[in-house]
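Standup notes, structure subgroup. Blocker cleared on the zinc ion input:
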Amino acid sequence: MYVVDSCAIFMRKKYRNMVTIPEVLDEIKDEESKLFLSLIDIKIEEPDDESVKAVREAAIKSGDIYKLSDTDIRLIAKALDLREKGAIIVTDDYAIQNIAALMGIEVDSIMQTGISRTYRWIRVCKGCKRPVEGETCPICGSETYLRKKKI
Ligand SMILES: [Zn+2]
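Run returned:
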């Protein structure tokens, strides 16, 4: 069971056993995406009220509640309903991924290069460890080396 958000639909993700909620469908306005939806096998289901409550509580506890819309919460709740059936929630939204992980729901991201893999290279001094420009540190005169910095 793949529980998908609107982004997964915009990216034309196809899985066997796709599920989403009516609120996600409401976000799909363009004709091409609607055509795509009509061609794939996707179930539209409401989440259980108990699950919505449980997700909301988990989001309040983790602090993600401010980053989640009602639609996001209901989508996670739908995945929670189906957790025992091996539901996987498909999204690139970090707050959704975080709550899903906290609730033991499997997550799949849409793009291959997720945010956690984004980095850039910086030069760091071997002596004073400061990030600097150039091959020699202008502060202490030591050599510098390249290091990955997550952004
Ligand atoms: Zn230095």
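Discussed briefly. Residues 2-108 form a domain with the Rossmann fold fold (CATH 3.40.50.1010).
Next: hand off to the docking folks.
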